[in-house]
């Protein structure tokens, strides 16, 4: 057993990591705003690939960061600025798509498509909140030179906890579908969600 495994496996460390993941995953952010809107517009079943992409994509990010990618950003901090602008541009595009989403009962082919697994997984790499979560977990809950087993354990645990936390938002959105069958209400809801997604950029560009 490697030296870092007992530290990682200690109950207080696992509990702290779990609480950290719950709090950061369930609080509002780009992912949760998007799955909430997806739940309203497409229902829970069609949103499941989106949820899976978020959680597995985030878990992969944590693993890669834990295995050394974080040091690249420490050495070249200008990469953070590049990533920030790419992520901001993509979030604006996603907000535009949400604002233009159709009604739940619109004929096939007339509504926007939900974000799929690959798109949601790739989005984590330009999601500012996901970067903060991953870097925070790696810096706080892993030793300076962690083993593959330790990094994998953290990544798997965080992905497993993240999925139901994000799913709560999709479920809430699905519950709102009956109230939002009126096209005017749905249009207003989508515009609000698009606005909130854009507003999530404010702290990113103010730091």
From TrEMBL:
It comes from the Bacteria. One of its GO terms (cellular component) is plasma membrane. The keyword ATP-binding does not apply. Keywords: Cell membrane, Membrane, Transmembrane, Transmembrane helix. Pfam families: LysE. It is found in: Cell membrane. GO terms for molecular function: amino acid transmembrane transporter activity. The keyword Coiled coil does not apply. One of its GO terms (biological process) is cysteine export across plasma membrane. The chain crosses the membrane at residues 48-70, 82-99, 148-176, 188-205. It is a multi-pass membrane protein. This is Protein AmbA. It comes from Paracoccus kondratievae.
């Amino acid at each position: 057993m490697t030296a870092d495994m007992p530290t990682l496996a200690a109950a207080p460390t696992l509990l702290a990591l779990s609480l950290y993941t719950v709090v950061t995953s369930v609080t509002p952010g780009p992912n949760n705003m998007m799955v909430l809107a997806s739940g309203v517009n497409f229902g829970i079943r069609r949103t499941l690939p989106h949820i899976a992409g978020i959680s597995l994509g985030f878990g992969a990010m944590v693993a890669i960061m834990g295995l050394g990618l974080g040091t690249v950003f420490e050495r070249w901090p200008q990469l953070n600025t590049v990533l920030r602008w790419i992520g901001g541009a993509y979030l604006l595009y996603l907000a535009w798509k949400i604002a233009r989403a159709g009604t739940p009962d619109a004929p096939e082919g007339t509504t926007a498509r939900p974000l799929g697994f690959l798109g949601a997984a790739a989005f984590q790499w330009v999601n500012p909140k996901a970067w903060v979560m991953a870097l925070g977990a790696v810096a706080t809950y892993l030793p300076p030179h962690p083993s593959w087993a330790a990094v994998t354990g953290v990544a798997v645990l965080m992905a497993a906890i993240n999925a139901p936390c994000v799913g709560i938002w999709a479920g809430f959105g699905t519950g709102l579908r009956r109230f939002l069958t009126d096209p005017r209400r749905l249009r207003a809801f989508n515009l609000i969600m698009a606005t909130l997604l854009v507003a999530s950029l404010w702290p990113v560009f103010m730091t």
